[in-house]
Fold this protein.
Amino acid sequence: MKFLFDLFPVILFFGIFKWGDSHVESAQSLVQQTMSGFVSGGEISASQAPILLATAVAIVATIGQIGYLLIRRKKVDMMLWVSLAVIVIFGGATIYFNSEEFIKWKPTVLYWCFAVSLLVSQLLFRKNIIRTMMEAQLKLPDPVWTRLCYAWVVFMGSMGLINLYFAFWGNFSTSTWVNFKLFGGMGLMFVFIVAQSAYLSKYIKDAS
């Protein structure tokens, strides 16, 4: 359930974009009516309407996530606060400047923020965030926790680069990037977790 909760804004972003991409005139009219005051110049083209609408919904969804947790007096993870800051800044810039380039940078910035926080905590403060998150479920030797931390740093750094490839360098359409953002990102995360589990399996057996 937590996995779906974390993905809620991404799923909404995908669904709203696909609806807008299939109903361009309706999306343009809706954005023009509700968001023209937030867009520089006030004019929204039909081609930009789907991404602007999806971005606005993602911002509201992320705020809603945190509001829900606060109302229920549950802990809000630091990365969720970071995600809120990134989506508000880059999503807000996307809407104001009427440019999809800003929101396309958002996943990369988020991945790299996570990678940097892991690396800085490990190198400067000798605190392994991955260990803190997983130690209640796993008992591993200290060197394995360190390797696991660096593996996540490399993975998150690589995910940021892959996002830039689909967003800008590969000359893909915005629709292709949106597809990758959901399905490609989930697929790569699944492969990484399976590989991580395979690597850790022998240590888990040894511990048992």
About this structure: Residues 104-208 form one domain. The mean pLDDT is 93. The chain is about 80% helix and 0% strand. The helical segments are 2-22, 24-35, 49-71, 78-97, 101-124, 129-134, 142-169, 174-207.
